[in-house]
Structure formats: C-alpha cells, structure tokens
C-alpha cells in the first residue's frame, strides 16, 4: 500500500535499542561488515607471524630460543641453550617469557605449511568471533576478546604442554586459533538460544526489541553454520590425536571459559 503523501510503499522497520551501532546494520548474506579497525585487529597477529617467519627467522640465528622448552626438559638443558647470550644468566626468566613468545615462531619447513596453516586458522576464527559477538550483541568487545585470547592462550597451552607434551619443544600459534574456536562455540550457541527465545517471545506477543548488532545483523543460519564448523574442527582434532592435540584442546577449553564469562560480564559493563 502507498501512503497518502509520497506515493511510496510503507516499510516496517524493526525496533532497535538505544545506543546501537550503525556499522552493524544488515548486509547481503546476513554478515556484519568489519570496520577498518576490526580488519586491522584480525590481521595484526597473522601479519606478525608471517613477518617473523619469513624475515626474522632466516636472518636471526638465535630465533630458536623463542620456542618453548617443556619444563621437564628445560630442567636438564644448559642455560646457553635456553636463552640467547645476553639473557643466559636469567635463563629461567627467559623460559617463562617464552610461554608467550613461542606463539610467534614456527619450526622451519620446506613448504611453510605450518605457518600458513596457523595464519589461515587465526584469520578465519577471529572473523568467526566477530560474527558471533555481533549476533550476541557484544561486538564492541571484539578487540578486547581478541587480545585476551592472543596473550593468555599461549600461556595456558604451555602449561598443558608441560603436563601432556610428548616432544621437547613446542610452538604455540595454533593454540591461539583453537582458543578462538572455543569462544566461538560458546558464544554462537548462546546467540542461537537468545534468538530462539526472542522468536518464541514474538509469537507469544512478549518479544523484546531487536538489537541492531544482535540477531538481525547476522542470520541464525550463519551462526548455526559457524557453530557446527567450529565443533567439527575441535572434535576432528581429538580424533586425529596429533602430538599437539593436548595443547590445542587446552586452548579450546580456555576459549570456552572466556565465552562463558563474556556474556554475563559484558552485560553488566
């Protein structure tokens, strides 16, 4: 039907809550469009990994000191093999530093498959985190969650490596990717439940207003697809049972814990 003034068809607009963000409006495909800042965040760590692998490691002989040496092995390792020369007197402090630093280096390989795979994993899972946080209405917390996972997940993975590792040394970038997967699984599940509750409320006539960075910015089918893919990757890692599986699962577990906390915590802030 046309209105009496302009002859244009009436369009019903969904009610949105105050304080919503214009950047979260619906886009083709039901996906949020990342801002420049969000894109910079997503690519920051992957770019650093590529720079370190292709530029720093080939020209810096001591790069290997950044890998993490399993605690039981480090106890019998000479100090000069744990830390580079200026830090040899502080070898154990350096060892603790590598709980974070080991996420920046990769074992050299002929086809560079390790670093390329981890870069792809981090980019895709970080983007999935942005999508699911948008669906939950917590998009403004994306950058905080990103850096919390990047900094803390390698530390969690290093302790899991101490307990369950089967090799002498480890490299932790993949732990970050699995931490993203863990939080994506939880946040996407919560977003799907929230969307179902809203739809039931609409049918009963008591549905709440739609968040512009919530359910209507990301289609539920997209969130469900992200959830299923994330679960499949985490479960597939368990089935494959690679030597790094305990570290991957520790990262996923830490990410799941962050996902459980992020909803109630950000609702109060």
SSE topology:
Blueprint: H1 36-59, E1 68-69, H2 71-74, H3 79-82, H4 91-101, H5 113-135, H6 142-164, E2 169-170, H7 173-203, H8 220-240, H9 245-268
Antiparallel strand pairs: 1-2
Helix pairs in contact: 1-5, 1-6, 5-7, 5-8, 6-7, 6-9, 7-8, 7-9, 8-9
Q: What would you say this structure looks like, in words?
A:
Helix content is about 60%, strand content about 0%. A two-stranded antiparallel ribbon has the order 1-2. Mean pLDDT is about 85; it is low at about 10-30 and about 205-210. The two termini are about 45 Å apart. The chain is built from nine helices and two strands. The chain has helices spanning about 35-60, 70-75, 80, 90-100, 115-135, 140-165, 175-205, 220-240, 245-269; strands at about 70, 170. It is mainly alpha-helical.
